[in-house]
Fold these 2 entries.
Entry 1:
Amino acid sequence: MTAVHLLASASHTSTHEAVVFWILGPLSVIGALGLVLARSAVHAAVLLAVVMLSLAAFYTAEQAPFLAVVQVVVYTGAVLMLFLFVLMLVGVDSADSLVETLRGQRIAASVVGLGFAILLIAALANGLHGFHAQGLAKAQADKGNVVAIAEKLFSTYVFAFEATSALLITAGLGAMVLAHRERLTPRLTQRELMQERFARGGAAVAPLPGPGVYADHDAVDTPALLPDGSIAAGSVPDYLQVSAARPTVDVTERELDQ
Amino acid sequence: MSPDNYLYLSAILFTIGAVGVLVRRNAIVVFMCIELMLNAANLSLVTFSRINGNLDGQIIAFFVMVVAAAEVVIGLAIIMTIFRARRSASVDDANLLKY
């Protein structure tokens, strides 16, 4: 393979890669737009996952399999799960309000964004004009991507690599300090909890009757009956609709008559 | 197709993320938009690595991922702390330093 041939093959991608790009590229742009436009934060997180996974596919196509795996494991696996956990803690239903605090902020931001995009793309087109891509064939010739990255990471970049370990430890400590909450009141013992419960009065000493006790059904929405045939309060949880067809009282009366 | 298209895609994704940071009010969604911008920058780094024919771009993208992971941990812890104090994750409600 001559050098000219090599250059030509590196500066133009294969048809497979073009297909991947033209399918996943628009998909990732749609996902990113959805992330900005979605009202629910959970929808935004799912659309961000779409963008991140398409980027992982791009990394594979760009001869960076190591980064593709790291992208899936670190970003979609760890970072996005962390986002979803915090969403659960903060409250999933915290949708954005549509009221603008600054008037015209959305339109102004969109115009600025459009101008910025045009600026970036024009600068890229200007800078890349007449520039030929070289491809990674020579850099990771017979070693493969992972070994080539490891050699650079543990020689040229070894100090930066060590610094990231300090950074990660600091981040872990910082998260512990920020998430820590001091206990302001002493923890109540079991004895104190019980004393408080009976001091208020009205607490049942024995457990409440289960649903369906003395009734002719034992379904969870059938209230228990007291010996006089009346319904025992508290035998059915409040959030259950008590079923309308409840023949229990009549049955009990019939049995009492016999 | 030329590999330059990845750079244009990266520019578009970065811009969308920046607009999201400007427009959205929910702090967690703002944070997701920042992650989108970091991802777009990573895509351009990987593409630069390919265009230039050496692996330094991929290694810098790897470091960006490490730093982003640490940043997410701290950022979300700060959002949680603010939420605990103010019962809101909206960036408009945290205005104690304003006046």
Entry 2:
Amino acid sequence: MLLNIFNSVPIQHYIFLSAVLFSIGVLGVLFRRNAIIMFMSIELMLNAVNLLLVAFSTYHNDASGQVFVFFVMAVAAAEVAVGLAILVTIFRNVHSVDIDELKSLRH
Amino acid sequence: MTYLLLIILTPFIGFLINALFGKKLPKTVSGIIGSGAIFVSFLLSSIYFLGFLKGTQAPIDVDVYKWIALPDFTITFGLLLDQLSVTWLMVVTGIGFLIHVYSMSYMHDDEKFNVFFAYLNLFIFFMLLLVLGNNYLVTFIGWEGVGLCSYLLIGFWFKNQSYNDAAKKAFVMNRIGDLGFLLGMFLLLYNFKSLHFGTLQTAIAAAPVQHGLMIAITLLLFVGAMGKSAQLPLYTWLPDAMAGPTPVSALIHAATMVTAGIYMIARSNFLYALAPETLQFVAIIGVATALFAATIGLMQNDIKKVLAYSTVSQLGLMFMALGLGAYNSAVFHVVTHAFFKACLFLGSGSVIHALHGEQDIRNMGGLRKYMPITFWTFLISSLAISGIFPFSGFFSKDEILAAAFEHNKVLWVIASIASLMTAFYMFRLVFLTFTGEFRGTAEQKHHLHESPALITFPLVVLALLAAVGGVMGMPEVFGVDHYLKNFLSPIFAGSTHIGEHGAHHLDHATEWALMGGAFLGAVLSIGYAYMKYVSGKALPAKEGEEKGLGKVVYNKYYVDEIYNLLVVKPIMLFSQVFHDLIDRTLVDGLVNRSGKVSLMVGAQVRKLQSGYIGFYLLAMVVSIIAMFSYVFLMR
């Protein structure tokens, strides 16, 4: 039943949505200077990919795509945990999360 | 075979101990280890020597291990002990031991005492290897090794630049000769597929060989001998080699190493037997060297330089004997020369020691009173080298002169003149050093003393040997056997006929006359020296006051200067040109350019690493997009 609802939305819509989400993520990463927002943008990109994976999984009647999404989520969670920890340390040191402040490795 | 290896290895062990632990050992211990190692070798050699004398010992030819094994040929690391090598073995270890003992006292105040003994032991090791090798390659290892030790020991006091230069000169000159030796070996290997003495001998006897090839091989080998044994035109290194400590001059540059060339040619007698033209050449070079060096010896004022030129001259006589096919006589003279020349050098060392480094005979004189033992031993050896009956030199030199008389009267005349000069300059040296009044400073006079027992003991032993050494080779007319000739007869059995060829044997009357003439000539020369320097109280001219021919001779015929002009200067010029043009401009230019290019590229590329994370991310995204577009769109 539920499956039918999903199937009633054509695959192109999922692709467009996911592409839009991904682009927003990319632009967010490129143009925001706040590290936390960049993080969120990265999550957005990951989830755009997840959405696409799930959509194609249903489309092809193949569950492995959904299994893959779980892995992505787990890895993303781990990445966020480590990333946020790093961010906290950076904030303690430079009292800012603006990535343009982090230039001491230059040259 | 074990004992044979021990003979070689004990000096090497001595070298290792002195080189590795010498600094921790007291000087006495270090000296005793050095001398003891040689003494062990000497004892073992004596056992073999006595065996050969009694006839119980057969020649040994063993291969210790296979060294180079190729489809075409094998070269083994092998040893050969026969009458010829045992003769050299006795000279090297015997005189080597005496000189080690002497050095214990002579070098006692030197801070590098242990290094000195290490070098000496290493030298003996290589010399024994040279003498005992059973093929040309093993001999060549020893040949190069003694050259190395000679270099190290001439430059032993390396803080003095002129000593370093002398060491370099010796090394380079020897290298020129060694190249000849090496090429000779290549020719042998290429044509006969072997370097083993015995194999070569049978191979050459079995099949007829090209005459030209034999001449080429023997000439190349002789070039090697020229370098090592200081013959014209490669002799100039030997007088300069006197920069080394005096025991070194005695051991290496008088008694042993410089006779290596004679050993090598005597060993190769089976090759030379097939190349009479080369022998002729050897004889001419030998006699020319004998005369040339003797004339220079007449005018030298440095006590060691006189002895050095006398060594060159005597080596020339030995080569003349080789060239005449009189191998026995050459070996005989090598042995007696080792006795008296080692004694003379050690005696001069004793004098230099007493005078605290003074070497100029113009500043000596009257030393007989202060140093009686040195004087008497020096006198005996001088009589021996001058050819006065019944000292050893008389017999050996007479034999060579007789051989020359048999073959070629011109050679005989020149060699006789050279030996008359020898008598004169040796006694010029004796009279100026030991008679008359002391001409040095009062300070030196105050310190004059006879040298300690460690120095005089070797002198006495060597003087005794120099006095009676002739016994081993009395001429037939004396009615006794020529022991040495009989002893060596197996070695030269195949080659002496060359010497006999074309020569009529001398009758007894002629022989007596020759001996008498040589003796009388030597006595007259000595008498002339006595008149000039004792009765006449003449002194050699002061520095820069020589005139005419004397000046030319005093300056050694300007040979060094000529070599400098003809060889050293052009080479230097070439090097300068290559240095400026090839090295500086081309090679350095290339290297520096490439360095500069990478620096420039680096400076540009470095700007990419700006430190802005946003820029990195942008670059990443752009690159990924570019990659995808390439993959999807460009296909």
